[in-house]
Amino acid sequence: LKSLALTFNGSVNNPKYGLIPLLRAQTEIEDLNLSESPAVEENILMEISNNLKNLKRLNLRKCSHVTDYSILPLSKSAFLESVNITSCDLITDEGLHDAFLVGTPKKNLKELHFALLSNITEAMFVRFGPKFHEQITVLDLGGSTNLADDALQTIFCHFTKVRYLNLDSCCKISDYGITGKFQNQHYFSIKNLQGLRTFRMQNCYKLTDFALIDSFHFNELRELFMARTHFGKEGIEAVARNCPALEVWDLGEVDGVDDDVIGVVTKMLHRLHTLKLNYNEKITSKIFDHIYENCKEIKYLYLRNCPNLNAERLHDQLYFMKGLRKVYLE
C-alpha cells in the first residue's frame, strides 16, 4: 500500500486495533492523510517515524492534539516532500525547529502547509530560510494571524522558488511587506518570486494600489485571489497590464471593480477562463459586452449577489457566449 487516507479517527484504548497496528503492518506507505483525527498524538507520530521510512507526504490538518512534542519524531523522516499541519494550533516555532531543522536533513522537502497557525513568528522563517533556500515551492500560510511584514521580507529573500503562496487573511501585512520599500529604503519584494503561479491574498485589507503597481510584475502568474480587499481601479489595471498569463482571477467584493475596470481587464487578459465578481455592487450588464468582445476563452463566471445585473438582458447575452460552461448567480 502506497497511499492511505483515514480521516476523523477517534482514540482506541485497545492497542490491538486502530492506527498503531495498521502503521506497523503497512510500512511501504508514501502518502498518509490523517487529517481531523483526535487520535493523532505523539505515539502515532512515533509509529509513523519508526515504520514509514519512505513517507513523502503527510497530512495532519486539524489534528487538534498535535503539539511541539508530537512532531519531534519527524526529525527522522528523510524523504518528506510535503507536510500539512494546518490548524494544529498548539505548534510553535520551537516545535518546527526541532522537527525540521534537527536530525535527518530534509533535502526533498518542497511543500509547507502551515496555515492557521497563530503561534508561528518571523523567527521560524529566519531559521528555515538558510536551510531550505530555493527548495520550497508551495508555502501555505493562510490565516496565520501572527504573520507580519518582517516575516514576508524573510520569505522573499530565501524562498525565491515558490510557485504557490497563500497569505489569505494575514491581516497584519502592509505595502512594506509586499514591496520591501520603507522610508526610502529598498529591501526584498515579492517580485523576487518570478516563478509564482498562484497567489492568494484575500482579506488583506491593509494593502493598497501601491503594492500592486510597484511589485506585481509576473509573467507566469496563472491564478490570483484578492477578494474582500480595498484595491482601486489603478491597482487592478496595473495587475492586468503586468501579469499577462492570468487565467483565474477572483475580484469578489473589491472596492474598485466596475464596468470600466472589467473592460480594461478583459482587453488585456485574453487567456482568462475564470472570473469571480461576487458581491460587486457597481457592475452592470455592460460587463458582458466587454467579456463577449474580448475574452473568448471565458468558461466560468461567478456573479453572486451583484444587484445591478439585469436578469432579462443577462439571459440574452449569455446565449451568445458559446464557450461558457457555468455561470454562478446564487
Task: Describe the protein in words.
With 330 residues, the chain is α/β, with parallel strands linked by helices. It is 29% helix and 13% strand. The chain is built from eleven helices and 15 strands. The protein has helices spanning 19-25, 42-51, 93-100, 122-131, 149-158, 175-179, 209-215, 233-242, 259-268, 286-294, 311-320; strands at 3-5, 31-33, 57-59, 82-84, 111-113, 138-140, 164-166, 181-182, 185-186, 198-200, 223-225, 248-250, 274-276, 300-302, 326-328. The strands form two sheets. Strands 1-2-3-4-5-6-7-10-11-12-13-14-15 form a 13-stranded parallel β-sheet, with no helix packed on it. It is globular.
Present the secondary structure layout:
Layout: E1 3-5, H1 19-25, E2 31-33, H2 42-51, E3 57-59, E4 82-84, H3 93-100, E5 111-113, H4 122-131, E6 138-140, H5 149-158, E7 164-166, H6 175-179, E8 181-182, E9 185-186, E10 198-200, H7 209-215, E11 223-225, H8 233-242, E12 248-250, H9 259-268, E13 274-276, H10 286-294, E14 300-302, H11 311-320, E15 326-328
Parallel strand pairs: 1-2, 2-3, 3-4, 4-5, 5-6, 6-7, 7-10, 10-11, 11-12, 12-13, 13-14, 14-15
Antiparallel strand pairs: 8-9
Observed structural traits:
two-stranded antiparallel ribbon; single chain; alpha/beta; 330 residues; 13% strand
